[in-house]
Every structure is written in C-alpha cells, then in structure tokens.
Amino acid sequence: MPELPEVEALATFLRERAVGRSVVRADAVAISAVKTFDPPLHTLAGAYVVDAERHGKFLALVVASEAAGEMLHLVTHLSRAGWLHWRESLPAAPPRPGGKGPIAFRLHLAPEFPEGPTSGFDLTEAGTQKRLAVYLVRDPLDVPGIARLGPDALTVTRDELATLLAAQRAQLKRALTDQTVLAGVGNAYSDEILHTARLSPFKNAGKLTDDELTRLHDAMGHVLTDAVARSVGQRAATLKSEKRSGLRVHARAGLPCPVCGDTVREVSFADRAFQYCPTCQTEGRTLADRRLSKLIK
C-alpha cells in the first residue's frame, strides 16, 4: 500500500507534470471506484490544474473548473493494490467501462506543446479486491476518510503524539496505523519506525514511558523524512522499488537485521503480516504467530 512518503512523492511528481495544464476529459473505467456524483466528472473537462496535495495517504489534484465555477479536488485513495501510472501518450479512444483490465480511472491532459500527444495518468488496481476510490469534491473534507484523519505523522509534535497515544488502549502497532489517530503511516513504515525506536509492536500504546515516547517520535521523524527524501524526485514507475530498497525489517523475514544481525521474524494475520527484530525490539523474545498461539507481549 502506498504510504505517506510515496503519496508525497506522487503529489510532487504531479506538480511537476500536471500543474499548468488543462484537463481534456476523465474516463471512469471501473464505475464502482468513483464514489461521488456531485459535481459530475464531466465538469473536469477544460479545468486548469493548479496544484497537487497529500492528505494522509490520500492524493488530490486541485483544479479550477470553469464549468463548475469553482475549485475542485480530484481525490484518490490507492488502497492496498492501487497505483498511479503516468503516460506520455494516451490513446484517444476511452477504455471500455467495466473491462477486466487493471485500469480503474484515466485522466487526459492537454498536450504541453501544440500538436503534441495527449498525456495523463491511469489509476490501476491489481487483484480481485477492488478498493481503489476516486472522489470529485469541492472540499477535501467532503471525503469521509479525510474528514476522519488524525494529525499528519510527518508534522506531529512529540507532545501531540504523547496526547494521542495516551488515549489509546490498543497495541502500539495498531495505534500507529490507525488513520484516525495518526495520518499517513501504514504497515510497512510502522514496522520501520518501531524497529528504529526499539519498541515491541505489541506494547500498549497508552503506557509508553517518556523515554519510549521520545524514541518513537524521533524514529517517526527520521524514518519518514528519510523515505520522503529518497522518494521525491523519483518517477512514479520507480517509487515501489525505491520503497523496498530502503526497508530494513519490513518484508525481510528470515534475513539478518542490519543493526544486530539477529534473524528478522514475522507475525502473520489473515491477510497481512508484519516483521520485527527480537533482539532490537522484544528483548530477545520471539512473538508467537497469532494464527497458531497466544501472542507473547
């Protein structure tokens, strides 16, 4: 799933490629992906792209629409298997709605130069669980998921983080990935943050000591800032590989921890898994797989 650093990089990429250009049209290929109907998608035609924004893990393209007579926000949540693919040249014919391919939505932008090709981007989604969502709204807060977001993980202060976590009774891993508590962190970067902070994923979020809170806040800032720095400037097509190359424990079960050399372990759930280092995070204890036995805290 794209998380804060990748979505920030995609927003930067769209500022460089799309801002200053006008929209030719929008093709809703997977009708179920479009979650709004007012304003209608056809009001995007002729709209002028003025900015790209990130709201947690939501990506938004800001356009000035003459047809609507106001600013509009084309918002997408890429979910677990979605991605944005920039196309320097797009076919004139729209994709067939309801087709079996991965394309869910296509945005055509006017050529940068006279007689040049129409370019733009496809929003695609792999797999059978279709959760990618597209919204056209007047205000980003009209998107329910954005309205519920907690403070952004990249800018939250240490004291704000302490207040947020003090109200939680969940395990630390769950609290960090709850977007209503903290916006932008998902499964991968929460693993990286907890490893850097030397904290167990199953620690009670509301019972951290002052030292643990400081380590957690410092780790969050370091991990996310470093990931944004590595991601911004990358082409959309290379962001996924850049993310994988920077991970130290996530998706590295069975490999040596780059800090202490212990074997990175994994805990699996029904549809996902997370990774951690016993030596760095759990005082050498191995956390039992939830599918097999009770968790060791």
From TrEMBL:
Gene3D superfamilies: 1.10.8.50, MutM-like, N-terminal
Pfam families: Fapy_DNA_glyco (PF01149), H2TH (PF06831), zf-FPG_IleRS (PF06827)
GO molecular-function terms, A-Z: 8-oxo-7,8-dihydroguanine DNA N-glycosylase activity; class I DNA-(apurinic or apyrimidinic site) endonuclease activity; damaged DNA binding; zinc ion binding
Keyword Metal-binding: yes
Catalytic activity: 2'-deoxyribonucleotide-(2'-deoxyribose 5'-phosphate)-2'-deoxyribonucleotide-DNA = a 3'-end 2'-deoxyribonucleotide-(2,3-dehydro-2,3-deoxyribose 5'-phosphate)-DNA + a 5'-end 5'-phospho-2'-deoxyribonucleoside-DNA + H(+); Hydrolysis of DNA containing ring-opened 7-methylguanine residues, releasing 2,6-diamino-4-hydroxy-5-(N-methyl)formamidopyrimidine
Assigned keywords, A-Z: DNA damage, DNA repair, DNA-binding, Glycosidase, Hydrolase, Lyase, Metal-binding, Multifunctional enzyme, Zinc, Zinc-finger
Domain FPG-type: 248-282
Domain annotation Formamidopyrimidine-DNA glycosylase catalytic: ranges: 2-99
Domain of life of the native organism: Bacteria
GO biological processes: base-excision repair
Cofactor: Zn(2+)
Database matches in SMART domains: Fapy_DNA_glyco, H2TH
Annotated family: Belongs to the FPG family.
Protein name: Formamidopyrimidine-DNA glycosylase
